[in-house]
């Protein structure tokens, strides 16, 4: 299974856990970004989210995600990196992104996760449309 993927079905951690197995690994760390009910909208108001919808330029997004995984390995001494991002509609309570990494020691894995997520949100051509309970929508580059 390719450790960097865009998917259109629910992301289940159990499907990805084995991808980090490595006899030299002493630590596995995971982050799942999940659709929550309340969101601070661009106008500063707290809005009630009905659903999220993600779109991407698939070829460019996968290329950027792979580069990001490779950079994280180099920067933090990681053995393996998994990045899975969902496209299409993501209902409340479901994951839109899953990032995992393994390293010899826990500190490297713990430090890598926020760095990967920050870079993903800045650099990868994936866009999010929030639909609120009142049916208003807002496009966001996550």
Automatic annotation (TrEMBL):
Keyword ATP-binding: no
Protein name: Molybdopterin synthase catalytic subunit
SUPFAM superfamilies in alphabetical order: Molybdopterin synthase subunit MoaE (SSF54690)
Gene3D superfamilies: Molybdopterin biosynthesis MoaE subunit
Signal sequence segment: none
Cited CDD domains: MoaE
Organism for this UniProt entry: Stieleria bergensis
Enzymatic reactions: 2 [molybdopterin-synthase sulfur-carrier protein]-C-terminal-Gly-aminoethanethioate + cyclic pyranopterin phosphate + H2O = molybdopterin + 2 [molybdopterin-synthase sulfur-carrier protein]-C-terminal Gly-Gly + 2 H(+)
Keyword set, alphabetical order: Molybdenum cofactor biosynthesis, Transferase
Quaternary state and interactors: Heterotetramer of 2 MoaD subunits and 2 MoaE subunits. Also stable as homodimer. The enzyme changes between these two forms during catalysis.
EC number: 2.8.1.12
MF terms in GO: molybdopterin synthase activity
Similarity-based family: Belongs to the MoaE family.
Pathway entry: Cofactor biosynthesis; molybdopterin biosynthesis
GO BP terms, alphabetized: Mo-molybdopterin cofactor biosynthetic process
């Amino acid at each position: 299974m390719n450790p960097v993927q865009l998917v259109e079905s629910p992301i289940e951690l159990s499907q990805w856990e084995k991808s980090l197995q490595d006899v030299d690994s002493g630590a596995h760390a995971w982050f799942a970004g999940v659709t929550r009910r309340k969101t601070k909208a661009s106008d500063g108001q707290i809005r009630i989210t009905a659903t999220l919808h993600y779109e991407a330029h698939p070829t460019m997004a996968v290329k950027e995600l792979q580069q990001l995984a490779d950079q994280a390995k180099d920067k933090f001494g990681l053995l393996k990196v998994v990045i899975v991002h969902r496209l299409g509609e993501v209902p409340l309570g479901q994951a839109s992104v899953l990032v995992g990494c393994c390293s010899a020691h826990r500190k490297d894995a713990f430090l890598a996760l926020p760095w990967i997520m920050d870079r993903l949100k800045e650099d990868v051509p994936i866009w999010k449309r929030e639909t609120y309970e009142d049916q208003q929508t807002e496009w966001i580059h996550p």
